[in-house]
Amino acid sequence: AGVIYAVPAGKSLVIEYFSARTKLPHAQAIAEIGCTINQNNAQSVSTYLEATHMTSTSAQEFFVSSKLVRIYAGPESHVSVFLKRLPFTSGQGMVSFSFYGHLVDVP
Predict the structure, then answer these.
(1) How confident is the model over 28-64, as pLDDT tens digits?
(2) Rounded distance, CA 41 to CA 20, Å?
(3) Would you state the pLDDT for residue 12?
(4) pLDDT range class, residue 92, cuts 50, 70, 90
(5) Degrees (nearest 5) of the Cα angle 30, 98, 47?
């Protein structure tokens, strides 16, 4: 997981929709998936997404997550994403996050 957006000084970010597409090794599942807003390294708030299993192959599991949200991130805060999977074993996976929102001027 990591920072996917840094809110500029003098602006607040309003996130209205968040989604993710995940591919994991066969027989693995998503334990937690979502985003965290870190306000100047002092306070963090996490929002969790529900993961829907779409299909399987002999080698991989496919999931999608999407949610209408209203998440506020203040000036100079960071939007981070996370994914935890079960079982906690080896193997490579892939996750692609996206969000939609807008910036608002802060007086």
Answers:
(1) 999 999 999 998 767 789 999 999 999 999 999 999 9
(2) 25
(3) 96
(4) very high
(5) 55
Q: Which residues pair with 85 in a beta bridge?
A: 30
pLDDT at 2 over 90: no
Six-digit token pair at 53?
A: 């299993």
First to last CA, the chain: 32
- Check whether 1 has a pLDDT greater than 80: no
Compute the distance between CA of residue 17 and CA of residue 35 in angstroms, rounded to an integer. Answer: 11
- Rounded to whole angstroms, the Cα distance separating 102 from 40 reads 20
**Can you give the length of the chain in residues?**
107
Q: Alpha helix locations (H) across 26-75?
A: none
Q: How far apart are CA 55 and CA 26, in angstroms?
A: 10
8 Å CB contact between 51 and 63: yes
